[in-house]
């Protein structure tokens, strides 16, 4: 397809406009052996971790300091449905390890309570605000309530604009010199208008998809799939 003409574009048309976290109060929690200073306002919070237990594996540090809904009622998620957590994050990018200090090392922020397992996902926070979107499938039996763990390392982490919506965010397109790639990593087919002047690849692999047929206007990308188009 040649050289890319622009960065990949994320399409958010599968996301519901309804934030499922509206009206839910939040609080910081500190585990045994951890020490932190907190700041908090509506739908946002900051924690400066001052002490973490020594000689402890990272997975036992992740949620020692965490930001979670104050209510004990679990989120009403439907098993098998896709949800997306959206938030802004930034944090200290100085890493203290074994008496050494390393500069410009992203901080790990863990997320649990939407997907399956102790850790549903993680993101890396840097010194500038970063908007993160993470899509997950709700399990049949959620193992824990929603929480953001910020205590893998000493330092400050800030979170704001917390949202949880139905739908998946992993729909991407990218234009190249001689074509276009469409990637749909959501549970639903993706219908979009690509304009005129494209056709499908022609090949022996997946011949039912790569037919070489001309595409003018609307195309459907199946769930968990991708489509490669060439320019006429």
Summarize the structure.
The chain is mainly beta and 232 residues long. The protein has strands spanning 9-10, 26-30, 35-41, 44-51, 65-69, 82-91, 95-97, 100-102, 107-112, 121-125, 130-137, 147-149, 155-166, 171-176, 179-184, 190-193, 198-200, 214-215, 218-221, 225-231. A 6-stranded antiparallel sheet has the order 1-14-15-20-17-18, with no helix packed on it. It has a 5-stranded antiparallel sheet with strand order 2-5-12-9-10, with no helix packed on it. It has a 5-stranded antiparallel sheet with strand order 3-4-13-6-11, with no helix packed on it.
Radius of gyration based on Cα positions: 21 Å
Shape: elongated
Oligomer description = single chain
Describe the largest sheet. 6 strands, antiparallel
- Let me know the number of strands: 20
Give the rounded overall mean pLDDT. Answer: 88
Give an overview in words.
By secondary structure, this protein is mainly beta. The chain contains no helices and 20 strands. The protein has a 6-stranded antiparallel β-sheet with strand order 1-14-15-20-17-18, with no helix packed on it. Strands 2-5-12-9-10 form a 5-stranded antiparallel β-sheet, with no helix packed on it. The protein starts with 8 loop residues before the first strand and ends with a strand. The mean pLDDT is 88.
Write the layout of secondary structure elements.
Elements: E1 9-10, E2 26-30, E3 35-41, E4 44-51, E5 65-69, E6 82-91, E7 95-97, E8 100-102, E9 107-112, E10 121-125, E11 130-137, E12 147-149, E13 155-166, E14 171-176, E15 179-184, E16 190-193, E17 198-200, E18 214-215, E19 218-221, E20 225-231
Antiparallel strand pairs: 1-14, 2-5, 3-4, 4-13, 5-12, 6-11, 6-13, 7-8, 9-10, 9-12, 14-15, 15-20, 16-19, 17-18, 17-20
């Amino acid at each position: 397809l040649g050289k890319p003409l622009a960065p990949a574009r994320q399409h958010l048309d599968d996301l519901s406009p309804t934030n499922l976290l509206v009206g839910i109060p939040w609080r910081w929690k500190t585990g045994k052996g951890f020490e932190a200073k907190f700041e908090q306002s509506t739908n946002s919070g900051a924690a400066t971790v001052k002490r973490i237990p020594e000689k402890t594996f990272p997975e036992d540090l992740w949620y020692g300091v965490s930001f979670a809904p104050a209510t004990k009622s679990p989120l009403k998620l439907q098993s098998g449905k896709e949800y997306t957590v959206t938030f802004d994050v930034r944090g200290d990018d100085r890493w203290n390890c074994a008496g050494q200090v390393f500069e410009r090392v992203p901080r790990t922020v863990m997320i649990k309570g939407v997907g399956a397992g102790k850790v549903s996902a993680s993101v890396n926070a840097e010194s500038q605000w970063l908007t993160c979107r993470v899509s997950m499938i709700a399990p049949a039996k959620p193992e824990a309530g929603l929480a953001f763990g910020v205590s893998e390392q000493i330092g400050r982490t800030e979170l704001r604009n917390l949202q949880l919506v139905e739908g998946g965010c992993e729909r991407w397109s990218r234009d190249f010199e001689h074509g276009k790639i469409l990637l749909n990593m959501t549970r639903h087919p993706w219908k979009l208008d690509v304009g005129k002047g494209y056709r499908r690849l022609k090949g022996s692999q997946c011949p039912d998809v790569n037919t070489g047929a001309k595409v003018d206007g609307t195309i459907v990308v199946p769930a968990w799939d991708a489509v490669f188009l060439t320019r006429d």
